[in-house]
């Protein structure tokens, strides 16, 4: 039956209208993955040399044992963002004499067909063969190899379990990402504990106590069966659907939005769209992760105070406005599947735009509040963030929505965000020019004549002016939309 599933998926691929485009994308992805594989292989072949070059007077095997746990924590974080859920259109099989265990088993096993499961073997395998095998024998080498594979399997199914649960409740995904981020920051940023010591505690003891390999093997097996039974319990589409309905409140049940009437309903629908679908949800999650962006510049001792303030313009714009940029540029593409319905509905386009502005204002305000702890690096940093917050609400929001009127490519909300270029075209390239150049074109001339605060003041005034004249820009955007609405709709019909 497994071979039948593969056969059906191959036929569905070759009979699709977009077969040519899909093949081209897969060729590009194949070349990219081949390049990544060669890079990872080189890391694996020279891992012993890299570890020997790090702080001396420590045995290379001790260093190796101390890095494995850190790798798998980072691996889990990357899987949550990049690894795709294995899919199979189960509807045609549910009424046939196909055992549910077979369908679920197929989904569970195909989840192992991920390059993430190959990387640990390629990275750690050569070291195990070159160093651990000669030093401690074949048994220890096999124990290490089995432990690495088992932890990879555990991460694989843990990430998939979290992502499947997040399809019902988007907060689960966010909580998992925050917990992993805090675990890594607790060691490398705040130095509260040592992940290296915890890693060596297990893998160092694995050398003298090979039976400890049972722990990762049991964890991998348990996580596999947890996924298996979760899929089996939710294979009934009506049950999964009912959970989604109960997990999200209607707009009338959100007290904060009730007072805004029809615009509040539109914002509530937008929030539901974001939380229920992978691609738009990733735009929100990316914005939360980008809150750490400032640490790249502000913690670097090589940068002077003036340089940090200049970088604060760049970092502040993205930290407080990345959601506006990532989400706003696809303003209509998110509704591509029902855009024709929007055109003939009673929804006023001015209300549609006001709802977008309202959503961007709320998310950007929360993002700015999250950047306030950067006051640790100086009040000037937070002041710059506030100026860029005003700039994003006024100028950048208007620019992004103007270019959104020129994006005619649809987006399939059911697809993930990793390596997904649906909806991306020349419009995004053109959009990057004013977004990146305009703020520096205003700020840098004042900085070069030693009046950086005047440059910030000019940007803040422009941001406030655009916010106060928002209704004027909404009317202009509405007029521009009505000129292009049929071209946009035609583009969205091309699947």
Index terms:
2 domains, single chain, 0% strand, 76% helix
3D architecture notes:
The chain is an all-alpha fold and 495 residues long. The protein has two domains: 34-244, no CATH class; 254-493, no CATH class. Helix content is 76%, strand content 0%. It has 23 helices and no strands. The chain has helices at 2-14, 19-45, 47-53, 60-82, 91-94, 100-110, 119-136, 138-166, 170-188, 195-208, 214-233, 237-247, 255-258, 261-276, 278-289, 294-298, 305-328, 339-343, 349-371, 379-404, 426-448, 452-468, 470-493. The longest helix has 29 residues, at 138-166.
State the total count of DSSP E strands: 0
Largest sheet: none
Structural class: mainly alpha
* Helical proportion, percent range: over 70%
Count, helices: 23
Number of domains: 2
Give the terminus-to-terminus CA distance: 31 Å
Strand content: under 5%
Radius of gyration, rounded? 26 Å
Provide a short characterization of the protein structure.
The protein has 495 residues and is mainly alpha-helical.
How does the SSE layout of this entry go?
Elements: H1 2-14, H2 19-45, H3 47-53, H4 60-82, H5 91-94, H6 100-110, H7 119-136, H8 138-166, H9 170-188, H10 195-208, H11 214-233, H12 237-247, H13 255-258, H14 261-276, H15 278-289, H16 294-298, H17 305-328, H18 339-343, H19 349-371, H20 379-404, H21 426-448, H22 452-468, H23 470-493
Helix pairs in contact: 2-7, 4-8, 4-9, 4-10, 6-11, 7-8, 8-9, 8-11, 14-15, 14-19, 15-17, 17-19, 17-20, 19-20, 19-23, 20-21, 20-22, 20-23, 21-22
Keywords: Membrane, Transmembrane, Transmembrane helix
Pfam families: DUF5687
Transmembrane segments: 23-48, 60-82, 103-129, 135-159, 171-193, 213-231, 282-299, 311-334, 355-376, 382-404, 424-444, 450-468
């Amino acid at each position: 039956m497994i071979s039948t599933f593969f056969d059906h998926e191959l036929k569905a691929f070759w009979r699709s209208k977009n077969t040519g485009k899909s093949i081209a994308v897969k060729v590009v992805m194949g070349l990219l993955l081949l390049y990544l594989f060669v890079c990872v292989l080189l890391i694996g072949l020279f891992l012993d040399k890299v570890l020997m070059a790090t702080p001396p007077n420590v045995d290379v095997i001790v260093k190796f044992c101390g890095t494995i746990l850190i790798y798998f924590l980072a691996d889990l974080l990357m899987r949550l963002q990049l690894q795709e859920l294995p899919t199979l259109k189960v509807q045609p099989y549910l009424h046939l004499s196909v055992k549910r265990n077979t369908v679920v088993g197929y989904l569970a096993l195909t989840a192992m067909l991920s390059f993430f499961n190959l990387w640990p073997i390629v990275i750690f395998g050569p070291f195990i063969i070159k160093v651990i095998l000669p030093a401690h024998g074949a048994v220890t080498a096999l124990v290490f190899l089995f432990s690495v594979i088992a932890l990879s399997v555990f991460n694989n199914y843990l990430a998939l379990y979290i992502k499947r649960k997040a399809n019902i409740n988007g907060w689960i995904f966010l909580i998992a990402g925050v917990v992993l981020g805090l675990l890594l920051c607790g060691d490398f940023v705040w130095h509260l504990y040592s992940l290296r010591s915890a890693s060596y505690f297990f893998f160092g003891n694995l050398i003298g106590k090979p039976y400890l390999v049972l722990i990762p093997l049991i964890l991998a097996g348990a996580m596999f069966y947890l996924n298996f039974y979760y899929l089996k319990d939710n294979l009934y589409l009506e049950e999964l659907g009912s959970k989604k309905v109960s997990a999200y409140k209607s707009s009338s049940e959100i007290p904060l939005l009730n007072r805004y009437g029809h615009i509040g309903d539109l914002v509530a629908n937008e929030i539901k769209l974001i939380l229920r679908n992978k691609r738009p949800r990733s735009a929100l999650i990316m914005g939360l992760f980008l809150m750490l962006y400032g640490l790249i510049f502000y913690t670097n001792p090589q940068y002077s105070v003036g340089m940090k303030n200049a970088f604060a313009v760049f970092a502040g714009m993205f930290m407080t406005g990345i959601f506006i940029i990532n989400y706003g540029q696809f303003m209509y593409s998110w509704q591509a599947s029902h855009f024709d319905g929007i055109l003939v509905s009673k929804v006023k386009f001015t209300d549609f735009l006001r709802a977008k502005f309202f959503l961007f204002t709320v998310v950007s305000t929360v993002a700015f509040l999250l950047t306030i702890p950067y006051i640790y690096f100086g009040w000037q940093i937070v002041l710059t963030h506030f100026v860029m917050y005003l700039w994003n609400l006024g100028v950048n929001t208007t620019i992004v929505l103007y270019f959104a009127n020129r994006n005619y490519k649809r987006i399939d909300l059911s697809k993930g965000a990793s390596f997904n270029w649906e909806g991306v075209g020349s419009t995004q390239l053109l959009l990057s020019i004013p977004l990146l150049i305009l703020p520096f074109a205003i700020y840098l001339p004042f900085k070069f004549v030693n009046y950086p605060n005047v440059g910030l003041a000019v940007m803040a005034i422009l941001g406030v002016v655009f916010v106060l004249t928002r209704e004027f820009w909404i009317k202009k955007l509405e007029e521009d939309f009505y000129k292009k609405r049929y071209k946009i709709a035609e583009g969205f019909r091309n699947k």
